[in-house]
């Protein structure tokens, strides 16, 4: 493998590039490469850049990535469990949720949630990522109870679960404070929180795309309280809808401020808006709405995140779900050092129209990484390195084998919302008894197979 990042002429190439671009962009990049902090105003200026300046931004971000992360590109073997799609909110970008009166609402029983977690663990996953809709009249302790039940069965699995919006909902429904609710989650065994429900942390943007969503101050309160209780979180941005460049840069500065205060953020994940089936696009709900970010906007978002968060947030993730494998590879050369997880049951972007599948097996993630001349490494949720792959293992891993008949084995969101067996019928928490996907699948198979009598 050629180690491109260590060739000395790259430094000279970067210097030459900086000498050839807009002097304002060059000055900001020079400052960042010298260890200076890029302000929100300077960040906005970088977002305005194009042409050769874009190349310089990518090269500077790649250099900062190399200094922090070296050649390793990480991934986590995990499974998403979105246990219900029924939600009381109406976020304009969300095609996943269903109103409680709609026919396509589902709510998985506890048996099935635990079966999914166990199956993932048996296939080599170390993490389950649990996020869902906010069902009406939900039992307040649901998230804590669910965590406890999963940990009882699988004590070593990492539960990466419950967005700030969900934590707040759990607290409100329980009539507990956010502090007490987070303490309950921690004591039940939650390992980390997804820093989703952030979108753009600007009240005007939030009012436009998701009125009624968790507020900026509330989001910060949940995240910083989690950190104070020793629960790390990720951090995210959703971009490519109505936001301006200044708001993107201010969002990055906001994340950086949180990290300065607590140090509890493990990674930053830019998530580009998938417009196709989102209500705010299909129902023309929002004026000035863009159909997602362009390729160069996606590249700039990741690269400028690396530049502005340098020294504070060490891991920048690119999402194969949102960007697809080809653009994700480009992003690995523009500041990213992580490709996220195997996911197994990706529903949220798929339901909004993303077309990159619901599972990528580990060997495929490694193939993308190796193709760029970088070193694949499997990590834990909190970025402990489990294994680096100098060469490919001779034997395929369990998840690689299982992914060969993924649709049948793991089901799909499109199928799930049609199944009577998992239909939402007013549950306030997962029912304790209920069929599993394995049982449903066998029953359906038997019903469609001819009997011996013909
Ligand atoms: S983004 Fe979350 S809170 Fe908003 S509608 Fe979708 S599931 Fe509900």
Coarse morphology: globular
- Give the CATH architecture of the largest domain: Alpha-Beta Barrel
The major β-sheet equals: 4 strands, mixed
Report the sheet-strand fraction.
Answer: 5-15%
Question: What this model shows, in words?
Answer:
This protein has 454 residues and is an alpha/beta fold. It folds into 2 domains: 65 residues; 352 residues, TIM Barrel (Alpha-Beta Barrel). The chain is 46% helix and 11% strand. It contains 20 helices and 10 strands. It has a 4-stranded mixed sheet with strand order 8-1-9-10. The protein has a 4-stranded parallel sheet with strand order 2-3-4-5. The longest helix has 18 residues. The protein starts with 8 loop residues before the first helix and ends in a 6-residue tail after the last helix. The structure holds iron/sulfur cluster. Iron/sulfur cluster (SF4) binds next to loops.
Name a few traits of the molecule.
454 residues; alpha/beta; TIM Barrel; four-stranded mixed beta sheet; four-stranded parallel beta sheet; 46% helix; globular; disordered N terminus; binds iron/sulfur cluster
Write a concise synopsis of the structure shown.
The protein has 454 residues and is an alpha/beta fold.
Topology:
Layout: H1 9-20, H2 23-33, H3 40-48, H4 52-69, E1 72-76, E2 78-81, H5 110-122, E3 127-130, H6 142-153, E4 158-161, H7 164-174, H8 178-188, E5 190-192, H9 203-209, H10 216-228, E6 233-239, H11 245-262, E7 265-272, H12 279-282, H13 295-309, H14 320-332, E8 338-341, H15 348-352, H16 362-371, E9 375-379, E10 385-388, H17 398-402, H18 406-410, H19 413-416, H20 437-448
Parallel strand pairs: 1-8, 1-9, 2-3, 3-4, 4-5, 6-7
Antiparallel strand pairs: 9-10
The structure holds iron/sulfur cluster (SF4).
Iron/sulfur cluster is lined by residues 87, 89, 91, 94, 96-97, 133-134, 165.
């Amino acid at each position: 493998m050629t180690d491109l990042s260590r060739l000395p002429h790259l430094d000279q190439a970067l210097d030459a590039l900086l000498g050839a671009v807009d002097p304002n962009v060059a000055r900001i990049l020079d400052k960042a490469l010298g260890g200076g902090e890029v302000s929100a105003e300077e960040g906005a200026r970088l977002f305005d850049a194009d042409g050769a300046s874009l190349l310089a931004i990518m090269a500077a971000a790649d250099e900062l990535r190399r200094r922090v992360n070296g050649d390793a590109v990480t991934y986590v073997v995990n499974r998403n469990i979105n246990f219900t799609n029924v939600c009381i909110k109406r976020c304009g970008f969300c095609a996943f949720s269903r109103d409680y009166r709609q026919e396509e609402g589902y709510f998985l029983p506890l048996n099935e949630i635990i079966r999914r977690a166990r199956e993932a663990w048996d296939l080599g996953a170390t993490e389950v990522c649990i996020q869902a809709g906010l069902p009406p009249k939900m039992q307040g302790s649901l998230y804590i109870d669910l965590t406890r039940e999963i940990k009882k069965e699988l004590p070593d699995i990492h539960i990466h679960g419950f967005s700030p919006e969900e934590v707040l909902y759990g607290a409100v429904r329980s009539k507990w404070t956010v502090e007490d609710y987070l303490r309950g989650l921690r004591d039940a065994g939650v390992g980390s929180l997804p820093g989703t429900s952030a979108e753009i942390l600007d009240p005007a943007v939030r009012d436009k795309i998701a009125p009624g969503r968790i507020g900026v101050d509330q989001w910060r309160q949940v995240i910083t309280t989690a950190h104070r209780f020793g629960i790390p979180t990720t951090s995210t941005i959703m971009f490519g809808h109505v936001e301006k460049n200044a708001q993107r840069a201010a969002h990055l500065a906001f994340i950086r401020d949180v990290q300065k205060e607590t140090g509890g953020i493990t990674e930053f994940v830019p998530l580009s808006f998938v417009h196709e089936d989102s209500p705010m696009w299909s129902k023309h709900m929002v004026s000035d709405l863009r159909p997602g970010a362009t390729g160069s906007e996606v590249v700039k978002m990741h690269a400028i995140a690396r530049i502005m968060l340098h020294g504070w947030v060490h891991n920048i993730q690119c999402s194969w779900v949102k960007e697809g494998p080809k653009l994700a590879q480009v992003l690995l050369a523009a500041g990213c050092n992580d490709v996220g997880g195997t996911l197994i049951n990706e529903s949220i972007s798929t339901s909004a129209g993303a077309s990159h599948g619901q599972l990528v097996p580990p060997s495929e993630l490694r193939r993308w990484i190796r193709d760029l001349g970088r070193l694949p490494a499997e990590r834990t949720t909190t970025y402990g390195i489990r294994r680096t792959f100098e060469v490919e293992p001779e034997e395929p891993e369990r998840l690689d084998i299982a992914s060969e008949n993924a649709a049948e084995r793991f089901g799909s969101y499109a199928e799930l919302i049609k199944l009577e067996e998992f239909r939402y019928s007013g549950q306030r928490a997962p029912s304790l008894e209920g069929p599993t996907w394995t049982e449903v699948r066998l029953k359906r198979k038997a019903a469609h197979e001819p009997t011996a009598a013909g």
